[in-house]
Amino acid sequence: MDVQIKVSISGPLFDGRAVRAVADYIDAAKKDVGQQGLANVHLLLDRSLRNPTGRYESAITVQAMGGDVVVHDRQVIYGWWLEGIGSRNYPKTRFRGYHSFERATGMLQHQARPLAERILPRYLERMR
Asked: What domain of life does the UniProt record list for this protein's source (predicted)?
């Protein structure tokens, strides 16, 4: 008795489409979360700054760095002081800082998952 088995593999898992969809999803999720982080920082600064000139806010950006997405102030010299982590903050002065990036991070920890889940169906569809 001769038994033959023929296996045919095809579809997104085997032709690379699924791998590309996952990579694209991760990139898109990072980008969306980074943009939300930027929006959070601006929201918190708008609430804190008394006489904003726009100079500091215009320096804040979101940028891809080494596979991650980072929100930063382009190392503006007084950024440390405004955040409250500089050597010239309290107790040297009464100003304790706004902690906008720190608070934006806390907000983002609650927002990241829903943001990523919102775009997931678009990429799951590519895996069918």
From this structure: Bacteria
Q: What is the pLDDT of residues 88-122, one digit of tens each?
A: 887 888 889 999 999 999 999 999 999 999 999 99
Burial class (CB in 10 A: 0-12, 13-18, 19+), 71: buried
Output the CA torsion 42→43→47→53 (10° steps). Answer: 30
Kindly give, in sequence order, each residue whose CB lies less than 8 Å from that of residue 72, ignoring residues fewer than 6 positions away. Answer: 60, 61, 63
Domain ranges of the chain: 12-125
Burial of 66 (0-12, 13-18, 19+ CB in 10 A): exposed
The token pair at 52 is: 């904003």
